[in-house]
Write a structure and sequence with these properties.
heterodimer; A: 381 residues; alpha+beta; Butyryl-Coa Dehydrogenase, subunit A, domain 1; Butyryl-CoA Dehydrogenase, subunit A, domain 2; Butyryl-CoA Dehydrogenase, subunit A, domain 3; 3 domains; 4-stranded mixed β-sheet; 4-stranded antiparallel β-sheet; 53% helix; B: 257 residues; alpha/beta; Rossmann fold; 9-stranded mixed β-sheet; two-stranded antiparallel sheet; 28% helix
């Protein structure tokens, strides 16, 4: 048992923190205000640093690092800008990882390699108006015609949509099969005729990360773009989400850490009744509770990442990490606004943004309710 | 071309410092360590020179085992190999001893270019670089803010007082001490961080290289006295003027009593 980061993990943490503080943080508030995604800053630069393919082998353009390094990278980015954190998480865990896990050698060379190098961005299309937590409710269809598949339907709430070049999309290939069995996964490239983007969502938080609809109208893709076997799309989706939960858990952890630090710094500076408010137990005890929650979440996140790196089953661990980290992010950021009082409620300070950003972590890539369902089902089966 | 860059591991300057029990240095427990900021510019310049010339680049650092972490960053930025001079007592050594250790290491290696930071952020003597050059019998150019290699000549700009820059040309071999702003130190990329662990990092016991005695001794160290807080006067303009005149008369010699 060892709780120390390895030398590489420490170097990665230092490097990403320095990069995040120097390059990402200065524009975080402005990008949030303007709901503006900055591709050069929030994706291309991550590619130059080797973050976009952090966990994939070198032969596919990756860095060959472990999942703890990945969690640390998302955490450090999210500590200053949750939108940048989710851009990396959606690209790597949701867009790229299913191709790494289920792709053929040709698909990996063609799609994964440019994604890992940061030349192409990835996204993942599962959610539909009638299929969210119930992935089996997928209505988007794929019909075989000769050497092609023809896709029809709409995906909603897709992170990185519009910006990404490569989309992993779930569609029903067998109408008659039982709910989960007739779904298959496909790789769809931006620019394919019949594939367009619908409305851009106006969100409460992560406003610098684009969220849009994917619209498929007789979109014809090569038969070779099926990912995994026909009818195994549900398996692809569930495995992908297991990994994705580590990314979102790390994002939530980063938000919580950022909010904690903002609260501590403020409490040490702000004077009331001639003393820093941090010297009042009413505030100090709140900070202590926040720090304990953040550290507990961190241990769960790193544990899930450790299991993922060491070939152990991590469905349960990643569900626990995601549940605890996201609820920690919500509680700690809300508490941070309270510690900052009136200032915390203004957009002059980053904690109100962190509080708005935190909420989504309890919803996307499996709501807190779904995480409890996963954990509870594993416990009681 | 053979290049050496010397770095020092220093505490994060945001740390809360305490004087140690001997009263001659700061307490090193519970500190977060990083590369001396001046040395980051040295490493970047050394890596650029290596990339330009296809040269061979060694990074040297003196200190206990923990300094290897900082050396890994230099390796991840592009240095080829590390020479770690294992010295648990490095912090108590004077600049002459440190300079002599480096000069002894470099004496039989034939380095064409040696970079050091202009000074360290903790001791700040700014002596080590020039002492090394003197002991090796090569020229030193200090406080450089620009570095251009042309053939076997290096043209540099030095920063003087008041922002004035001086152009200096020097024939190699030579030593350069680097000022902040010399370049933009790169972030070590992920693939390079992963490769750094496979690079050679040789540890040398300090006894093998230290052949001189110290010349300076730190007698004591203390934290600066806390300055009193400012005084905020309140009232309308007339009252403020009266209060200010009273204070100036009573507490200073500016006005006659």
């Amino acid at each position: 048992m060892n709780f120390d980061l390895t030398e590489e993990q420490k170097l990665i943490k230092d490097m990403v923190r320095e990069f995040a503080e120097n390059e990402i943080a200065p524009s975080a508030s402005e990008r949030d205000e303007e709901e503006r995604f900055d591709r050069g800053l929030m994706f291309d630069k991550l590619g130059e640093l080797g973050l976009t393919g952090i966990v994939f082998p070198e032969e596919y353009g990756g860095a060959g690092a472990d999942y703890i390094s990945y969690a640390i990278a998302v955490e450090e980015l999210s500590r200053v800008c949750a939108s940048t954190g989710v851009t990396l998480s959606a690209h790597l865990s949701l867009g790229s990882n299913p191709i790494y896990l289920f792709g053929t050698e040709t698909q990996k060379q063609k799609f994964l390699t440019p994604m890992a190098k940061g030349e192409k961005m990835g996204a993942f299309g599962l959610t539909e108006p009638a299929a969210g937590s119930d992935a089996g409710g997928t209505k988007t269809t794929a019909r075989r015609e000769g050497d092609s598949w023809i896709l029809n339907g709409t995906k909603i709430f897709i992170t990185n949509a519009g910006e990404a070049e490569i989309y992993v999309v779930m569609a029903r290939t067998d109408k008659d099969a039982q709910k989960h069995h007739g779904i298959s996964a496909f790789i769809v490239e931006k620019g394919t005729p019949g594939f367009s983007f619908g409305k851009k969502e106006k969100k409460m938080g992560i406003r610098s990360s684009p969220t849009m609809e994917l619209v498929f109208e007789n979109c014809q893709i090569p038969a070779d773009n099926m990912l995994g076997k026909e009818g195994e799309g549900f398996k692809v989706a569930m495995k992908t989400l297991d990994g994705g939960r580590i990314g979102i858990a790390a994002q939530a952890l980063g938000i919580a850490q950022g909010a904690l630090e903002a609260a501590v710094n403020y409490a040490k500076e702000r004077k009331q009744f001639d003393n820093p408010i941090a010297s009042f137990q009413g505030i100090m005890f709140q900070l202590a509770d926040m720090a304990c929650m953040v550290e507990s979440a961190r241990l769960l996140v790193y544990q899930a990442a450790y299991k993922a790196s060491n070939g152990q089953s991590y469905t349960q661990a990643s569900a626990m990490a995601k549940l605890v980290a996201s609820e920690t992010a919500m509680k700690v950021s809300t508490q941070a606004v309270q510690v900052l009082g009136g200032y915390g409620y203004t957009r002059e300070f980053p904690v109100e943004r962190m509080m708005r950003d935190a909420k989504i972590t309890e919803i996307y890539e499996g709501t807190s309710e779904i995480q409890r369902l996963v954990i509870g089902t594993n416990l009681t089966r | 071309m053979k290049i050496l860059v010397c770095i020092k591991q220093v505490p994060d300057m945001e740390s809360r410092f305490k004087v140690d029990s001997a009263g001659t240095w700061y307490d090193t427990t519970e500190l977060v360590w990083r590369m001396n900021e001046y040395d980051e510019y040295g490493v970047e310049q050394a890596v650029q020179l290596k990339e330009q010339t296809g040269g061979d680049l060694t990074v040297l650092c003196i200190g206990p085992d923990r300094v290897k972490e900082t050396m890994k960053k230099a390796l991840a930025m592009g240095c080829d190999r590390g020479a770690h001079v294992n010295d648990p007592d490095y912090a108590t050594r004077d600049p002459f001893e440190i300079g002599a250790i480096i000069a002894e290491y470099a004496s039989d290696k034939g380095f064409d270019v040696i970079f050091t930071g202009m000074q360290s952020q903790d001791r700040g003597s700014a002596q080590v670089g020039v002492l090394v050059s003197e002991l090796l019998g090569i020229p030193a150019v200090t406080t450089i803010v620009d570095f251009v290699l042309e053939g076997s000549t290096v043209n540099v700009k030095r920063e003087l007082e008041g922002g004035i820059k001086a152009k200096v040309s020097v024939t190699l071999p030579a030593l350069f001490t680097c000022q902040l702003g010399l370049n933009t130190p790169r972030y070590p990329t992920l693939p390079n961080i992963m490769k750094a662990k496979k690079k050679e990092l040789l540890s040398i016991p300090v006894q093998d290289l230290l052949k001189v005695a110290f010349r300076l001794e730190t007698v004591s160290m203390q934290l600066p006295e806390k300055k009193g807080g400012g005084l905020v006067l309140e009232g309308d303009a007339g009252e403020l003027a009266d209060k200010l005149i009273t204070i100036l008369k009573e507490k200073t010699g500016v006005l006659a009593k």
